[in-house]
Amino acid sequence: MTGADFDAWARQQLIDVEHALEAWVPLAAPAGLGEAMRYGVLDGGKRLRPLLVMAACQAVDGQAAAAMRAAVAVELIHAYSLVHDDMPCMDNDVLRRGKPTVHVKYGQAQAMLAGDAMQALAFEVLTPDDDGGVPPALQARLCWLLARAAGHAGMAGGQAIDLASIGRALDKNALCDMHRRKTGALLQASVQMGAACGACGDAAWQALSDYGAAIGLAFQVVDDILDVTQASETLGKTAGKDQHQNKPTYVSLLGLAAARRHAEELRLQAHAALARSRLGAAAGALAVLADKVVEREN
Amino acid sequence: MTGADFDAWARQQLIDVEHALEAWVPLAAPAGLGEAMRYGVLDGGKRLRPLLVMAACQAVDGQAAAAMRAAVAVELIHAYSLVHDDMPCMDNDVLRRGKPTVHVKYGQAQAMLAGDAMQALAFEVLTPDDDGGVPPALQARLCWLLARAAGHAGMAGGQAIDLASIGRALDKNALCDMHRRKTGALLQASVQMGAACGACGDAAWQALSDYGAAIGLAFQVVDDILDVTQASETLGKTAGKDQHQNKPTYVSLLGLAAARRHAEELRLQAHAALARSRLGAAAGALAVLADKVVEREN
């Protein structure tokens, strides 16, 4: 897949995902809750997770309607985690995606509720009452993949390790374990959810899962690099805060040059996994996404 | 069903539900997260929602393995909502089920994460990877019922109305709307999830849903009554806080005597709905639960 082909493909996916988010995140929810939910998830973000879902679905020639629900659901989980993570009792951040964070704009109580309701909505979107063209067995499978990645063994567990690690020295294994859960689990689940939307043999499933694990970790290594090399304006969020909060990062542990080499290794691992999947050109968008994750500047 | 028969039945259900919660809420989750989750859900609570699930399942001769997962899931959602609701940015409460609240014991950040992880776990429990003896279509149906009841249209939406209503006068319709969402939706969903575990015709489904709506509202009316008539020791949570926070309640709106009459009316509505269901003696536990909801003293 050429860069231009990918760009055209991604542009269309992003339009479709945005339409689906617009349609499914309710403005009509009571007492301003819908407004806070929409503020937290619409009109911002790179939508990397939805792109991974759609690219993996394409790689296995999967069901687009199911993948779109998975894409919206995983973005809702990601967005809710940011809303909660930004709150004063967690990271206490005021800037996200270039805008005031949800609790700054709507108050802490509404931000907490909006995050809670976004998580519930993710699972509601995955299990449409009228089945929405998605076979029930696939609905259940997608719920399980997402719930496991979002919960104690995945994202929430990683955040708990993150909390407990402030000001402490972690070795590289412990740092990797934290990030595999905190960021990696949901990125890997995005790939797995897309792959679950089509027929996918065990070997290809394992290869795509390996791909997801590699880019999941690469994403965080690059995040740590950008946190020290980019300005807040470029990032759309507060730069330098890991260092400020005395959090262990790949950069603080390995140094900047070694962190960059590690990101490059993970990119190669991702491409090697795609080769093992034997999906060929169908996995073209996944290949480009591996590069984008490592080359990104915000 | 006699009172003694109900008591024996309920005692066994509670033992089974507690075992399932013990087994499925992970102690091994990292960095103390599992401990905070278990503290938030184990060893406390009346387990009304699980009892409603099991009683409704019994009424339709449903699949016990599925109902047990639904019972655990709905209790996890209820427990997470209490953990978040007790936090300083919401109700700022220090006592729950006779113990310090989760944020008092583990800190606000861990309490927020524990609540988030409990919600994710609810949906993980509903969609077992190995199918756990629950047909995938039922898994998906249970997810949808729970997600809708927990989210913006249900519990979270009701909490948002609650937040917005502090210090404001609500009329009876607005108060009912708030409580139908905030408390009623999850109680009704408990009945519906139990009913979904068996074969249940449209008329019986509607009747059981009506039953769930009636006891859902009755529960809150009684909650409002107990808030002014009982001591904190009996309640296991802080008494008198609605009045203290200047929140509209059935008692502040109708007066104590009229609130009691309203609870009695709702109890009769619940029994009338059970009669319409034509489930006969199989719905015996549901009938007793309607009485218990209205007669409870904590």
Q: Rg of chain A from C-alpha positions?
A: 18 Å
N-to-C span of chain A? 23 Å
Strand order of the largest sheet of chain A: 1-2
Main sheet attributes: strand count, strand direction, barrel closure of chain A? 2 strands, antiparallel
Number of helices of chain A: 15
CATH class of chain A: Mainly Alpha
Quick overview:
With 298 residues, chain A is mainly alpha-helical. Chain A has 15 helices and two strands.
Structural description of this entry:
The structure is a homodimer of 298-residue chains. Chain A has 298 residues and is mostly helical. Chain A has a single domain, classed as Orthogonal Bundle (Farnesyl Diphosphate Synthase), CATH 1.10.600. In chain A, 72% of the residues lie in helices and 1% in strands. Chain A contains 15 helices and two strands. Chain A has a two-stranded antiparallel sheet. In chain A, a hairpin with a 2-residue loop joins strand 1 (95-96) and strand 2 (99-100).
